[in-house]
Amino acid sequence: MSVNRIRGAKSSRSGQALVEFALVVPLLLVLVLGVVEFGRAWNAYQVITDAAREATRTAVVDNKVTEDSVKAVVKQALARAAMDPTSASTTIDLTGFGGPRGDPTTVHVSYLYEFTFLRPLIGWTGAQARVTLKTAFTMRNE
User: Fold this and answer.
1) What are the extents of the domains in the chain?
2) What is the pLDDT of residues 89-123, one digit of tens each?
3) Which H or E run contains 101?
């Protein structure tokens, strides 16, 4: 009789691992998607930072460059990274452009990044599924 009791206890626990797995998998998936999504956001931030650096370098080195051509450098860099440079949420501002030699020139870039994978999950909380990424780069006029 004790053998049957042991077999009965063992078979009643056979579904325990399946239930635990079913409880843990959604949390694990949200964690993995969160890592991927924030990695994509960090990549977008690095792209706009590099675009600002490239545009600032163009602005301070070439005396014949215009503000529109400096903004075009940022837009080209964003387009190379498959980011939409023409969206209304993308802003590019220049300060100190065309100043005397040695004065600083700064390029400010802001870009609205929308979460893709976590949007449905964030939407349940009532929060916005987007964040504005802002960066600036400063160099002295040459």
Assistant:
1) 42-140
2) 889 999 988 888 889 999 999 999 988 877 777 76
3) none
